[in-house]
Amino acid sequence: MEFEETVLNRRMVRNFTPEPVPEEHVRRILDLAMHSPSAGFSQGCAYIVVRDALRRREVGKIQGEVDYAAGGFGEFISKAPLIIVPCVSEEIYHDRYREPDKLQDDGKEIQWPVPYWYFDVGAASMVVLLAAVNLGYAAAFAGTFDPIALRNFLGIPEKFHPVGTISIGKPAKDKRSPSLKRGRRPFDQVVHFEKW
Ligand SMILES: Cc1cc2nc3c(=O)[nH]c(=O)nc-3n(C[C@H](O)[C@H](O)[C@H](O)COP(=O)(O)O)c2cc1C
Question: SS3 helix, strand, coil % of the chain, rounded to 5?
């Protein structure tokens, strides 16, 4: 698939067929995600792959999918054959930026005007979404409101923060998010040349 086609075809699809995603594709998607950039090459992201049906059901419960089902979206988290849970560790970034080549002239760690760990897990998650679409799948990210329950259930170490779930599978007929009615903002309102 051409790059532009992949980008334009990507949208959050919240319904999937039960067809499993072969191991080779799971690895391909995550291998590509690992090629996304990270501040100081900290590489502070990690991913949990959940395919077992009972475990997917529990993840769906934690993600509050009863509410999605009540809203007409179906149980799109537990019913997706593949769930990827992207996680990030802020601590890894602090450790990296306390290494000699990253210390400021005053010998201190930078003040982090932007929390780059969240930037990086977002960039990596976008690669997961695009890689899935590129392989002919559909995907949907759902943020988490209970990262502690996700961490406990999936055995994620304390220093890693799960940011949500990415459901992946072959697309089935889906209900589109009502948020899309907002419409896409016009280019000239979003892009500013030379100065805002
Ligand atoms: C950071 C982030 C959090 C999101 N959280 C949720 C969520 O919790 N549940 C959900 O159904 N969609 C979620 N979405 C999907 C957005 O609603 C969706 O990307 C947006 O409406 C644009 O639609 P599109 O991705 O299909 O183009 C999230 C997207 C992002 C980038």
Answer: 40, 15, 40
Q: Which structural domains are found in the chain, ordered by start?
A: 3-172 (3.40.109.10)
Q: How far apart are CA 192 and CA 161, in angstroms?
A: 34
CA pair distance 56, 150, nearest whole angstrom:
11
The 10s digit of each residue's pLDDT in 153-192 is: 999 999 999 999 999 999 999 999 999 999 999 999 999 9
- Report the sign of the C-alpha dihedral through residues 9, 137, 131, 157, in that order: positive
Q: How far is the CA of 145 from the centre of ligand 1 (A)?
A: 14
Q: How far is the CA of 128 from the centre of ligand 1 (A)?
A: 14
Contact predicate 128/30, CB 8 Å: yes
Query: 111 in ligand 1 pocket by Cβ < 6 Å?
Result: no
Give the closest residue to 34 by CA, choosing from 91, 84, 78, 104. Answer: 84
Q: What per-residue string of b and e applies to 118-131 under the rule 16 or more CB within 10 Å gives b? A: eebbeebbebbbbb
Ligand 1 contact, 61 CB (< 6 A): no
Residue ID of nearest Cα to ligand 1 atom 10: 142
Provide the whole-model pTM: 0.97
Measured from the Cβ of residue 154, the count of other Cβ atoms closer than 10 Å reads 18
